[in-house]
Amino acid sequence: MLNEFLFERVTIIGLGLIGSSIARACREYRLAETIIACDQNEISLAFARKQGFIDSATQNAAASVAESDLVIIATPPSTLQAVAMEIAPKLKPGAIVMDTCSVKQYAIDSIAPCLPQGVDFIPAHPIAGNEQSGVSAGRAALFDKKRVIVTPDDPSQHSQVLQKITSFWQAMGAKLEGMPPHLHDMIYAYVSHLPQVLAFIATRPLMAQASLFDNDPTLKKFTRLSGSDITLWVDICLTNRAYIVAALDRYMDVIIHIIRELKDAPEGNSDLANDTLVKTVLFPRVVASCLVTTVMEAEKKAGFSFARYAGNGFADFTYPAMHPPEDDIENISNHYSAMSGILARYAEELNEVRDALVSEDPQRVRAALTQP
């Protein structure tokens, strides 16, 4: 009798949004006969067992991978090397190791050197995250119609393994695509990592109007990313800091250009003072438009479109820029003092983030992203 499962035994290390969603999908789509979960949080393991989407659970990573055909590391970037070193002695010959980190060169540098010969490593990035986190946020359909980027060092040496991994993700409704890791990290600095950094900072002036978020679809989309897991994003920002700093520099050039134009407003222009309009309509419009401009300039320089790789985070943050601009352009001109002031403060806070990233100090980065 043929085995109806793609893998006999799959281990998932890390039961956050991505890891728990993969586990649920493995169960629902019958991708693995046995599903093993490893996580340091006993409550997450208990939840997964109770929900029935794993077969066994452990806090011991090395023990979890014994005899597994596929091992998926879905832990934060800073933990990848430690996890790889722990599981390496217990990996069986012919096993496949796959990560889900959103910074691929860092993942390769952290994991690949630790793995024994006879084990295939496929670096992967499912473009399916959102602001939710934790085991209870997972769902089997998370990857449906989503892109998964793989960045193997030499695809020709992994052809059979890649075929099996392609079948794995396609069974969840995802579409696999390959690219070099450095290209992946540059693209996602612009369309994922930079929008997340901007969302943490741009939401601050709006907090006094927080009651409007749920009732205003534009503000709700624009501010959604600000609820993301700060610990995870400090990790991501530091591991892809070179590309993020480069993208942030280009973005700040656009913001500073706007500030200068507002400060050079012709004498006689009306200067109105509608604080709510400035903060909830005009400011989101400007900062979202500046991101669109920044990405378009990067696309022109690279010679290809980044837009097809962007996820919901980019679409939501730039949503205020999708409306017809005529009325907003006039209002921005008529509120030039308030607009230049709020944008100047925004630029100062982004510069603090930039300096923190260059310092490579996690606590400083966290403070820059979360200060009130």
What does this protein structure show overall?
With 372 residues, the protein is of the alpha/beta class. It is built from 15 helices and eight strands. An eight-stranded mixed sheet has the order 3-2-1-4-5-6-7-8, with helices on both faces. Helix 2 (42-51) links the parallel strand 2 (32-38) and strand 3. The radius of gyration is 22 Å and the shape is elongated. The termini are far apart.
The average pLDDT is 91
Describe the global form.
Answer: elongated
Low-pLDDT sequence parts: none
Query: What is the helix fraction of residues, given as a range?
Result: 40-55%
Radius of gyration, whole Å: 22 Å
- Number of DSSP helical runs: 15
| Category by helix and strand content | alpha/beta
Following the backbone from N to C, one meets helices and strands in this order, namely EHEHEHEHEHEEHEHHHHHHHHH
Strand order of the largest sheet: 3-2-1-4-5-6-7-8
Count of extended strands = 8
Structural descriptors:
alpha/beta, 372 residues, 8-stranded mixed sheet
Q: What's the short version?
A:
The chain has 372 residues and is α/β, with parallel strands linked by helices.
Per-chain topology:
Blueprint: E1 7-13, H1 17-28, E2 32-38, H2 42-51, E3 56-58, H3 61-65, E4 70-73, H4 80-87, E5 96-99, H5 104-111, E6 120-126, E7 147-150, H6 159-171, E8 175-178, H7 181-202, H8 217-223, H9 230-239, H10 241-263, H11 275-302, H12 312-317, H13 326-334, H14 336-359, H15 362-370
Parallel strand pairs: 1-2, 1-4, 2-3, 4-5, 5-6, 7-8
Antiparallel strand pairs: 6-7
